[in-house]
Amino acid sequence: MHRYERLADHLRERIQAGFYQVHERLPSVRALAQAHGVSLSTVQHAYHQLEDAQLIEARPKSGYFVSPRRERLPAPPVARTAQRPVEVSQWEHVREGTCVLPDTSMHNLGRGMPDIDAPTLKPLLRALARVSRRQDLIGLNYDTLHGRPELREQIARLAVGQGCRLHPDDIVVTTGCHEAISIAMRAVCEPGGIIAVDSPSFYGALQSIRAYGMKAMEIPTDPETGISLEALELALEQWPIRAIQLTPTCNNPLGYTLSEARKRALYALAQRFDVAIIEDDVYGDLSYGFPRPVTIKSFDEDGRVLLCSSFSKTLAPGLRIGWIAPGRYHERALHMKYVGTGSTATQGQMAVAEFIREGHHEPHLRRMRAQYQGNRDRMLDVIESAFPASTRVSYPAGGFMLWLECADGIDSVALNQRLMAEGIRIAPGVVFSATGKYRHCLRLNHAVFDAEIARAVSRVGHCVAEMLTQRADAGQPETA
Amino acid sequence: MHRYERLADHLRERIQAGFYQVHERLPSVRALAQAHGVSLSTVQHAYHQLEDAQLIEARPKSGYFVSPRRERLPAPPVARTAQRPVEVSQWEHVREGTCVLPDTSMHNLGRGMPDIDAPTLKPLLRALARVSRRQDLIGLNYDTLHGRPELREQIARLAVGQGCRLHPDDIVVTTGCHEAISIAMRAVCEPGGIIAVDSPSFYGALQSIRAYGMKAMEIPTDPETGISLEALELALEQWPIRAIQLTPTCNNPLGYTLSEARKRALYALAQRFDVAIIEDDVYGDLSYGFPRPVTIKSFDEDGRVLLCSSFSKTLAPGLRIGWIAPGRYHERALHMKYVGTGSTATQGQMAVAEFIREGHHEPHLRRMRAQYQGNRDRMLDVIESAFPASTRVSYPAGGFMLWLECADGIDSVALNQRLMAEGIRIAPGVVFSATGKYRHCLRLNHAVFDAEIARAVSRVGHCVAEMLTQRADAGQPETA
Ligand SMILES: Cc1ncc(COP(=O)(O)O)c(C=O)c1O
Ligand SMILES: Cc1ncc(COP(=O)(O)O)c(C=O)c1O
Fold it and tell me: Which GO terms describe its molecular function (chains A, B) (predicted)?
């Protein structure tokens, strides 16, 4: 553990114990450095970590203060997973959720859609229209396999904010983060090989494991602190795992951000067992804490991290523009990119590059982060009042997803069926598991929040309550 | 063999033997029917086949006439291929050709780029700009996994012209034909499995075979009549082949169109050996004969044909919009689509659907077919005058590619290197082979033809001649 991490832990304990009260000013950086005999930057580092965790907040020119902490519902506990590699099933449930047309008469709380109606996104629409009118017709032409140079340049610039030094040539543009993950898996693992994943986990990654004939080793993951490094180490000792695939920053579906210390420890584990890390950072830029947490890729000294991301959650998913920085697997990744789709659609790339170059990206992110954080709290309020008391819920550090755990035996697949008749969709927990676990869990999207959505969420809660009562009435035994 | 095929063969022989002379009027449909004791539609069918083969042409209200037949350079002979399944190599050469940026200072005769500067394509640019301005923002949203309904509807309508009855729900939109082929292979074949391919063959399909750990069984293919059904049958008898992948209409790189009789025979073979057919129809709509030849898919009675295509060659490759009609493999194909890229970029789909719905597609195709056919002949003239007499060249029935076979020992990879210094690129033959055959062959793009391109093609020819002289001077022995 680093010095600053020890200091952060010390401060966290004091805040949680009530030694420092809400809205109280914390010691100045200088005072703390003297008291603990550490450097100023160590203190700053520790304070940044606590800021990321939303325990404290900086006020310009006056220092750090303890954040008001909402009364929180209990978080879900760590789930137990199979302690061996498994085949992935659940496609029928994933299919159900992805073969849906955008439908304004429906409240789709199930899908990973950002809010695309923000005014800060308008310049992107203008850029798209402009690109279509370009006389050189480059937008209609095959792009180079790597992706447009002007876009890779912007992606490399943005990476600096994630603690990463990337050259544009380190990056391959992809058809969304989905293709990036798909490329990464095929680049590092043969059919029959084993990939370790956080659990619950993004269903797209799980289904890729299935499609390529691989197996998933699901690692128990804490909704607050993230993937269990102890369980991961055990798995790495016992099985010939080829790669660790996870979403360590603003995790989908749990919402946690792995601390920098744990990210480093995970990287060290990967080095020790010589496995690759497939780091999905698709929600990373939506971290409520600012500056955003660093990526595992930022520690990568031997090219074993394949960083995967996209503009789907930050700008618009319909563009299908993502990227991969595949480190030492660059050549294999490029081959997999080639055989998967050839090059990526050209016009969208050009428009996004313009949007970023003209300075619209950062203001847009700032707005969306604030909106999503606010909506999180609003939706949590509704959940607290409408769901049965047995419900547990995550407290995301970024993004726009909440993870709910209902009482054992509540079937969220059946819940979803029932809600669909009323024009509401949720994401049932089973899709986040290789083998249909998390059936009593569900994920809700809080990208957009208004009175109608509040009503829809209430309706979900009441439906869960009804199901609970019906179960009690029927005297059904609890199923695992 | 069908009756009309026997009749067509009979007429072909007579034309080729000079019994019917160039510009001579052929017997009327009625007269021929009476003479041969067949129905009117049998004669019509036979005449259509000869039209497809560009041997005769219809003149409105006056009947069928023998086409003027240009003095043709000799076609390349059928190449010998390895008579066993092989692993695919050659990625470094494919990579070289696809990691290239569009560059107006370069004459890229190597890539499969259509002419995107035609006036008939302008409505597409307008549609793209219009879609960007749509208030409902559907273009920014995740599309359903299958692709936009309005686009699938148009694709199903167009399929009628290929003899196919498809329902929009039979179609899955993809990120180009490349993704369609990639999906098809993974849907029908496991890693380690064998796929039979025409040879020479589209390099993207070959590289997919490599990437998915499969093996290629290359089937000798005649530049005029297409894949050898005899060799294919032998291969099917000897090896556990899972699928036949080929481009039977306006083949890339050879330019032939498999006759309808051979398409039927191939389908029957697939049935007999119970293998799937992956039919790449990406150039099919650019057949110079009109109406365009039917697809193998049009005979498909048990869903074993996976039809793959795109708008890359007919409209614009930068859109990356293709489709697959995977028949009985629909569910597996949908899963492979999901894990490869999730859904396809939305805006381009909407714009293409509008372009077709508004009636711009057919006039555009008509124009492009005429342009490409004219350019073929112009480029053939240049080739005839500039290349050594030992050169053989294909006589495409559609599309915009010419296949040249130089004297044995001419190294087209070295040729390409040399030409690049002068701002010219070609596609070296090796990329069309699993194992680096066709090194003395090359492919040239004739989508656009003007004085500058003529000069570039001349330059290629002179370069080949120089290499030939240098070889003779050096007294190098011929290499295989
Ligand atoms: C964690 C995670 N990774 C990747 C993706 C896929 O992103 P894209 O739409 O860019 O393919 C998603 C979207 O659902 C996601 O939630
Ligand atoms: C025969 C053939 N099939 C498929 C493709 C790929 O098409 P797309 O650009 O739509 O992926 C090409 C393009 O080079 C081709 O020549």
Answer: transaminase activity
